[in-house]
Every structure is written in C-alpha cells, then in structure tokens.
C-alpha cells in the first residue's frame, strides 16, 4: 500500500497535477425542481437547518459529537462573492452541478464545538429547496 501511494505522489509531482481530490455529490439536484430562495428568507433556512444538520451529521460512530453546532456562514452561493473562504465553495458547487444549481443553492458552514480536532470541528453542506418537498442537503463536504 505504501509503495502504491508513494508512486502516486511521485507521478503527481512529475506531471504537476494536484493530489487533492474532492468528494463528488452522489447526484446533482435537477435545476428545474429547485427554487431560488433569497437572503430575505434566511429565517426559513435557519429553521430548516434544525432538521438538516442532524440528518447530515448525527450519523456514524460518534453522533453525539455533532449534536451541538453553530452556524459560521449561511448565505445563497451568489452572495459568497468577495469572501474568499466562502467563494471557494461556490466554485466547487458550480464545478459539481453547474452554475444554475449553484445559483439556487445555499452554503452552510458549521462549527461543532464538541469535536476537538480542528479539521473535524468544521463542516460544510450545500442545500437547496424543492417546491414539492422542501429543503435538502445535496452535498456534504466535511
């Protein structure tokens, strides 16, 4: 296993490619079924998070670590422009599912205070709203 990984790193450095790989969403939302939800409706989005965050994070081996959370950033993707940290996720959303889907989706960046590891204490989800079934998570980055 070590030799295989070492070979991949060497090849990546020779050819100048990045060894960083991002998970892909299992399925992109259908652009024609998701609504545009403006920042004026942030209260609706905050209410939906009370259901969405536990569904997305309180799973697996240590669900109790994700039972407490704080929102670090919550905005429609188009409003992330100008904020480098948030705007990078907008680029990911556009790359994964196209600009139309990204423009109708929201970025949610979270902090989980019970998780002591710095990288594990942060989470990012991409959410959207379907007219017939409400809010859903279409991608969880961390």
Coarse structural class: alpha+beta
Uncertain stretches: 1-22
Mean pLDDT: 85
Q: Radius of gyration over alpha carbons? A: 17 Å
Q: How does the major sheet shape up?
A: 4 strands, antiparallel
Spatial gap, N to C terminus: 25 Å
What is the ordering of alpha helices and beta strands?
Answer: HHEHHEEE
Trace the largest sheet across and list its strands.
1-2-3-4
Helix content: 25-40%
Structure report:
- By secondary structure, this protein is an alpha+beta fold.
- It has one domain (26-140).
- It is built from 4 helices and 4 strands.
- The chain has helices at residues 2-15, 42-57, 84-97, 99-103; strands spanning 70-76, 106-111, 122-130, 134-140.
- The protein has a 4-stranded antiparallel beta sheet.
- A hairpin with a 3-residue loop joins strand 3 (122-130) and strand 4.
- The protein is globular.
- The two termini are 25 Å apart.
């Amino acid at each position: 296993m070590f030799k295989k990984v070492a070979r991949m790193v060497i090849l990546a450095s020779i050819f100048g490619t990045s060894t960083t790989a991002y998970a892909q969403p299992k399925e992109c939302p259908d652009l024609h079924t998701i609504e545009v939800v403006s920042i004026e409706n942030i209260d609706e989005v905050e209410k939906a998070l009370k259901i969405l965050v536990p569904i997305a994070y309180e799973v697996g081996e240590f669900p109790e670590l994700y039972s407490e959370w704080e929102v670090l950033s919550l905005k429609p993707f188009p409003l992330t422009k100008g904020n480098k940290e948030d705007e990078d996720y907008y680029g990911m959303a556009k790359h994964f599912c196209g600009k139309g889907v990204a423009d109708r989706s929201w970025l949610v960046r979270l902090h989980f205070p019970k998780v002591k590891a710095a990288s594990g204490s942060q989470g990012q989800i991409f959410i959207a709203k379907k007219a017939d079934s409400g809010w859903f998570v279409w991608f969880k980055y961390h």
